[in-house]
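re: ur question from yesterday

yeah so i grabbed the chain u mentioned. its 761 aa long if i counted rite. heres the sequnce exactly as i have it in my notes:
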Amino acid sequence: MKTSGTLVLTLLLLGGAARTASAQGNGTVTFGGGASTQTGNAGAAGTAAPPQSVERDLLAESVPRDRAADPDKDWAQRESKLNEGITLTGGVGLIHTQHAQGGATGQFRVDFTTEYFSAGFLCTREFPCRDPRNPNNVLQSDSADHIGGRLRLSMQVVKWLDAYLATSALANSNPANRPSLLQVLGDSTLGAKAHGQLSNVFHVGGAFELWLVNGTGSVGLDGAGTSAKFRGLATADLRGAEKPLPLRFSTNLTYVLDNSGEVVAATETARGTPVTRIERYGLNINRVDHFDMHLGAEFFAAEEKVRPFLEYHVLIPVNRQDYRCRPGNPSADKCLATDPFAPSTLTLGSRFYPWKKGFNLTAALDIGISGVGFFIEEMRPTPPWMLYLGAGWAFDTQDKPPVIQERVVDSGRPTGRRIHGFVHEEGRAEGIGGAIVAWENHPELTSLATGTDGRFTTHGLPAGPYVFAVRADGYKPGQCSTTIADSTPVGAPVHTPAAGGGDVQLDCVLQALPRVGNIVGKVKDLDTGLFVGGAAIKVVDVAKKELSGSTDGDGAFRFELVTPGEAAITVDAEGYLVSAEKLDVKVRQDNPIEISVKKKPKNPLVAVQKKEIVIRQQVQFGVDSAVILPASTGLLTEIADVLLKNPRIRHVEVQGHTDGTGAPAHNQRLSEDRASAVVAWLTAHGVASDRLTAKGYGDSKPLVPNVTELNKQRNRRVQFIITEQDAPAAAPSPLGAPALGPPALGAPALGTGAKPPAPKN
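ran it thru and got these structure tokens back, copy pasting raw so excuse formatting
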């Protein structure tokens, strides 16, 4: 298939060029904060400022009137619209989903995207293909290769109208078909999108696209195959909200008048049968209309230079053509009349704007969600995946208008005296950079900021008192002041005292705030979610300073003056197991934390024996992994509680064991990883790391022979062997229960969490 879009491209280019800005006007921008404040300053001091002259540098003949008031803001908005990509059919949007937005008037976009796919999915056991080389044979597998390219051009004709053109060249190869190579060259789309803004966030629009399909086996368009799309568009751009968020959501509702099936009508008549499933995919043939729904979400990161996005697309067939599918057709495809069908696709991708404004790179992946392995005669098959890589360029036919610059020029007469200030910490000679210095008694003047060396310099000032309020991060607010005498001779040496007639030196001293932070937290019941009052709280900060307190009736607690760094927080509530968490305390801020506590079980799962901490259940892990499953959280919490309440147990060896299934080296490594995972969990929940050692024994120490599945489950275990302890006190066991006997089997020693048949190790 071939066609030419030269005429259409030329008309679009001429239309954009004809709209190049011609309205001209006048405007000014003034530079030099010090100079612009001279008049107000003189008035504040009660004396007239020294006379000055103004010189105009003519940088352009004129400025457009509609942008003279705030040209920088207008052009910043216009330039931001250059960073918009276009869809595969040409409208401004993601890969498939259009936004109800566009560019600025006179902006063009050009984009080229390649697509690639390779996998066998068109011939399966349920849907075999006829063997083109042996009529008596069928194929249950195939090898489909797809590659293509799409070139698009988009132009913003007026503020509310975006016109676009797209053309494509696609090639599909599949040895299970004859011919094995199918090409689609020159199918084109002409489109236009109207859009408008309902508010700072919400935008709506509509689009119309004419799909020009080339004929098969000939050059030029097949008029009978010409199709059309009617789109309804809506966009919520949260960057325009009162509290902006870097998110944009769009939805498209599209009805497609799809006549692509007409291009193969003559071929099917000559054959006496419909084209094959492979040909229907390779030639992009649908025999019925469809209603398409697109949902798109876009996130803006790195100053909007990185824009990951997510799209979902579902296609609902509509048999406007009243196509009569034949059950039991030669391709073994199903029929829409008996098998309702709605293929869907998920798209993951991102656009990148790495260099100059308007240039972008795109990478995206389509993932077939439904309809990948199910085929009906009326619709083109959906591939399991499709990779897109592209690059685009947007350019503006309007240039940013130059401005007339106005600057203050020294007339040679006196301009007053300056103040040279130095902001530093009390008792230290180093300056404080980035401190804000405000004019306390001259609010009409713009605040100053110190340089990296802590110094600032004012413009020339008339005689009078000057008071400055100084603020800097990490320091208490301060104040400093000086007075410029009114009898200053012109040309006095710099750096002399104020009474001597030169520039004034001013010392501004600040006091540092304490380098501490606050912990603000709540304690809640792990099972009910209710907050727990009256719980005892102990905090040990990074400096080993201990703080203690309790929660109020709402389960809340607060500790102030905590040394920054990792702090250990332990919660001991009546009727609950001890719980501990760690928190990285940041300086000079409230550091929030929420700690969950679990009620003591009526039947404890953990008890301390003479040489072992015995557990009635086993720690559960993921299949053949060291990932602890959530089902073991309660058990591990009990183990931590026992260790925290029994400081006499000085050291425990946490042992990992597996069954005899699998290679010994693999079992050894797995047992070590699982033992280390348990130690890491306990350490993270308050148990001192020097009290625990992780050791794996693989399958070297079975409890019972590895001959049955039940025995293997018993051998897959974690044990807690006490290797060092003080003599126990006379008090009863911390659990309030007698020491357990040998552990019951209870639930299997899982490490899997899977349903039967049980996985190995």
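noticed a couple things. The first strand starts at residue 28 and ends at 30. also The first helix runs from residue 6 to 18.
anyway ttyl
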